[in-house]
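Thread title: Can someone regenerate the structure for this chain?

I was given the following input by a collaborator and told the matching structure tokens would be attached. They weren't. Posting the sequence so someone can regenerate them.
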Amino acid sequence: MERAGGDEAAGIAIHYRDLVENHPYLVVCYLPDSTILFANTTAREFFGSELEGQRWLDYLPEEDRATNRRELATYRPEAPVRTIENPAVDANGDPRWIEWTTRALFDADDRLTHLQSVGADVTERRAAREALEKSEAELAEAQRIAHLGSWTSDFVADEIRWSDEVYRIFGLQRDEWGATHEAFMQAVHPEDRERVQRAVETALDPGGPRYDIEHRIVRPDGEVRHVYQRGTVDFDAEGRPLRMVGTVLDITERRRAEQALDHLAHHDALTELPNRNALRERLITTIEEGADKVWAVIHLGLDRFRSVNEGLGHATGDALLQQAARRLENSLQGGEYLARVGGDEFAVLATAEEGEAGITATTERLLAPFRELFQQEGGEFFLPASAGVALYPRDADEADGLLQRAAAAMAQCKAEGGNGVRYHAEEMNERARSRVALEGKLRRAVMNREGFFLHYQPKVEAGTGRILGAEALLRWQDGDGEIHSPATFIPALEQTGLIAELGRWILATACAQCRSWQEAGLPPVRMAVNLAAPQFHDPAMAATLESVLAETGLAAGDLELEVTERMLMTDIPGVIRTLGQFREMGIKLALDDFGTGYSSLAYLRQFPMDCLKIDRAFINDLGNGGGALIRAILGLGESLGVETVAEGVEEADQADFLEHHGCRALQGFLFARPLTAEAFGELLADGGRIRTQARH
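Best answer:
Regenerated them for you:
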């Protein structure tokens, strides 16, 4: 799929806006209650008023207001465009006739949002038309008033006579034209010739309609113009056509204005991609024309865009969205249709004729560009994406339902951790009900401090297996005895805000356990505790830490707080102050899931970190090019003078690679799953080392 480059696209957008503002037709945009949102220069000068913020109906003759008010309520999505002629009074108090072409725009719920009207002053044309209907004798005078081109096609002499205005419209000189029907047809746009010829032949039938048609012409210099023609035929007593007399009006500027408005209504200004309205219309047409086929809507959302946008500003965020749009465009194949449907969300309409395997491959192709770093103003960003897929007709048999289900599937994917694909299915409703029930259980458990306990996963030294530290991990068993997966209940705790109430208990329990091992004479380890965003941004957090350390007797240097990149990308000056407070207390700081967000060296130097934890996604992707990213992260850690820990290590080959490239500490199932405090203590008592299977 080919599109204009960034500078060219921006130029096109400016061109369309200038065209709307300066073209000679009246352009007005207003709300359903007739409040005017925008009026171009021509409209303001015509009515002698600024117009914006005023009521559109107030500029219509009083006797027509009630009719037009009723007309506003009758627009429907299936017929959004109407053309009517209305009387008006210009700034000089003169009565005029305006032909309005109005397009009504609706939201996804078919609610009328606003209307866009392009108006041409057709006072002269209307007068000319009325004169033409009265008699052929008055045509010349009507022409003088209307500045229309007039023509006569003489079928007896087989010649056509044009007025000077017609020659001007067609861009011809009198001596350049053959004055025959065949010569006229050569000036008609090739794609319109058959339609124009058919209209002429129909008008030559005594019982047929009059000649009334809009079409395109091509001037000798190649310029395409739009014209509107009307004509009447004189017949002899036997019904044979003698001549046709008519007018031609150049409506090119009006057509361009309508096209500009249509472009603005159906395209996203930032990325120049089609917008949600355009996607919806395309989807409706696709379903109507291919009802017997299988189609897919793939809804894509950037997982960590909000933190970058809020932390680094909208200019950086906008530039990243433009990059994302271009990457998606370059990933399209065949007739796939891409649109931007929200802030950081895109959607693709694709065929699904090859079944689920085919659409899975298509979705993976669209997600692949987001697994590469984004470059912007010296910074590097990892912005993975989540995808939701809904299929026609399996998941919905109409456009709005399909769009909604794809968006819901994407949201579900994000809720489950993101950076993946989810298909819509009815069982999602059951999961939603289960989520509500889970939140109710969690509220009761937090209130009563029931069922929560900690497990501890070892961090070991690469190569030796010596235990360096422990990461405290929250576990929960509800009142019915069911042990819930952390992947389920921890997001629920965070989304409901309950994690803040548990935060101090987790800190105190982990610190007390670490101190207990020390008092038992076991080898020293550092205790790592994950901080949730509400805890990290709590102004009283430093005081809470001081209190917990004092109560448990644990030295500050034996506590390590793990924070995520997302927490650091909001209010960066405040984040730096908070991290500085923790460091002044002697507490160690680790950046968790490193590599999945913003990885600019310039910013990281401002954050007083002691450790970078490489996200498990990179470890799992070692065989698919993840090694290069891991080496880059290890090099970044070395340049910053901080330790690096790789989490999610499950295979000996992964451990070998990490050790070989300088990663000091490892964590994962290869060494140990999260353990009870008693089991962890036994490991420490047994020499404080973990032996794994033989390396290859």
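Residues 1-5 have pLDDT under 50 and may be disordered.
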